[in-house]
Amino acid sequence: MRDEGAVLPAVGDVIGRRGRTAGAGSLAREAWYRFRRHRLALFGLVVAAVMAAVVIAGPFVYRTPLDEIDFRAKLQAPSRAHPLGTDDLGQDLLARLLYGGRISLAVGVSAMLIALTVGVMMGAAAGYAGGLVDHVLMRVTDLFLSLPQLPLLLLVIYLFRDYARGLLGPEAGIFVLIVTVIGGLRWMPVARLVRAQFLSLREQDFVHAARALGAAPPRQIVRHILPNALGPVVVAASLDVAAAIIAESTLSFLGLGFPPDIPTWGRILFDAKDSLDHAPHWALFPGTAIFLTVLSINYVGDGLRDALDPRRVIGR
Amino acid sequence: MPRYVVRRLLIAVPALLGISVVLFSVLALAPGDPFSELATNANVPPEVAQHLRATLGLDDPLPVRYVRWLAAMARGDWGYSFQSRVHVDELILQRLPTSLFVIGSAYAVALAVALPVGILSALRPYSIFDQVATTLAFIGFSLPTFFTGLLLILVFSIRLDWLPFIYRADLDATGVRWVFEQARQSIMPIAVLGLFQGAVLTRFVRASVLDVVRLDYVNTARAKGLSERRVVAKHVVRNALIPVITVIALQVPTIFTGAVVTEQIFRVPGIGSLLIAAILASDTPVVLAITFVYAVLVVVFNLVADILYGWLDPRITYA
Fold first, then answer.
1. How far apart are CA A67 and CA A63, in angstroms?
2. Which residues of B touch A290 (CB under 8 A)?
3. The predicted structure's pLDDT at residue B52
4. Least CB–CB distance from B275: residue in A154, A159, A295
5. Highest mean pLDDT: which of A66-70, A96-100, A292-296, B155-159?
6. Is the dihedral of CA B149, A247, A60, A172 positive or negative?
7. Closest to A295 (Cβ–Cβ): which among B142, B151, B290?
8. Model confidence over A163-189: pLDDT tens digits?
9. What phi, psi does A77 have (nearest 5°)?
């Protein structure tokens, strides 16, 4: 039960006897301590960090252009000139993978942020207000939960693709559309988590104390309740990044995501799937990239669950 | 219990209506009249197009169009496919058996993997078997099906040349030969879908059995001198499976939409690949109808899960 003790002092800190920074620090240290004991989560964190660093910094170091067409060098296996080989137009795969990785990761993180923002707002409003507001918001959440995700995703992108392209340009338009739709269909679990936390937290003594001292509802929510409700939300957020990356890759793989000149990993797989017999490397590299990223992020989420759930007793 | 079922059914109706409103609004908000393929076709003279719009009711206010559309859907009049000029429901019914065969077999595979592996894992937590199983399950649900499908094609169709990578509904073989060919072409799509779903379910089964196995009544059963087999089969698994069964029902719509990807990879002529083909061909009535079919599946299996749960778990009463 040492673990519960680790959270309670931090709750006290929010009210403000001891220094807030020291409290937050010890909470983070405790979480880090617990996270580290999950070997695979640590490994996942390292892999995810390396992947992110490589796709962010890679294009600055590796300067081969991603759209230089060279038919003499098409469908080549990995070589010195093209470390990961080339595609059917002789374009360098490593350059395309690095660029596509940026987009895939950006889609994952942005969609997660959208899902998180909407989910936290819905959940906080429902949990704090209660009554009719709660009822209505939860029915809306239920409705969204019973929507068929993938077909609706496909439907919306099919209907609004040209419109978004016309509005914001070919790249930004599709990016915003995809991110909004993926995020807009994934906020429900977060909303439920946040609502449940709010329902129990708003009746806790420290929140009553804050209310008695005259804190207005926004301050109660932002300063006192929300920080204590974030644990499960962080876990859900990390898993949402992975889910959003898969969703984007699935769309692109079905030929309904990004256009061919924006080589996200799913899009490269889509282009590569008909050349499996003579150029397997073309599909293997982006597929492995998606798999490794998703796997490592999922492990990070698993580790965060161990680290942030104070009720969870970890062995040994 | 019957009252509960009726009440639950009554909740399902507004859910379906809500979904239909969302779907219709998405279509209505979409730029460029997706329903009006005929009316905006450049080969159709403007007067004719105008007449078409009027007869199709495209110029009526939105609520009127929604009610008319809903009434038509409820009557089973799902309209014509722009692409193939047949009734949409005929088109879907044509494709449905193939989808049901692949999805049903895949789910059977998933359960055949998940139940024994999940139960054994939870009975010996942190043993070598458990660690291997949980790691494989973790990898399994992190592997996107579109990648596993391509990997299987690469190994079994291209390298080894054992299995065909295109699924054909019209095999030119009969009798035993047909069964053999059918099995050969179904193995990969079913394995891709089944193993992914199996990985997801294994985690549920393991967690659920773990929750039960530490409870006092299980110790009591052991203390009474029951054999380990009886304890596991009669006391642990029976109770642990109650939440698992609801999850199994809740996952049915997921596996249907998961099949969209698998059907696309192996060119299985099911409703998933019909959906993609319809989207690529801007065949709105078909797209809308299939999306609605998926939505109905979600609502129906939510209902099934709730009712099963109430029926299986005597602790739940419905006053």
1. 12
2. 144, 147
3. 63
4. A154
5. A292-296
6. positive
7. B142
8. 888 887 777 888 898 999 999 999 998
9. -70, 165
**Residue (of A280, A286, A87) closest to B158 by Cα position:** A280
Candidates B137, B167, B138; CA nearest to B152 is B167
Please identify which residue in the block is written with the tokens 């009027």.
B54
Specify the DSSP element, H or E, that contains B4.
Answer: helix B2-29
Contact B117, B133 (CB under 8 A): yes
Q: Cβ distance A116 to A190 under 8 Å? A: yes
Q: How many residues does chain B have?
A: 319
Mean pLDDT of chain B: 82
Nearest residue in B to A253, CA atom? B146
- A160-164, A285-289, B154-158: which is most confident: A285-289
**Mean pLDDT of all residues belonging to chain A:** 80
Q: Per-residue confidence at A8, pLDDT binned at 50, 70, 90?
A: very low
Which of the pair, B257 or A316, is modelled with greater confidence?
Answer: B257
Widest pairwise Cα distance in chain A: 76
pLDDT of A107: 92
Cβ <8 Å between A277 and B287: no
Beta bridge partners of B80: B87
CA dihedral B59, B62, B67, B72 (to 10 degrees): 50
When CB atoms are compared, the residue of B30, B253, B298 closest to A159 is B30
Reduced to 3 states (helix: H, G, I; strand: E, B; else coil), residue B87 is: strand
Tell me the two tokens of residue A308.
């942030």
Query: Do the chains contact at B146 and A256, CB–CB below 8 Å?
Result: no
B257 part of contact set with chain A, CB < 8 Å: yes
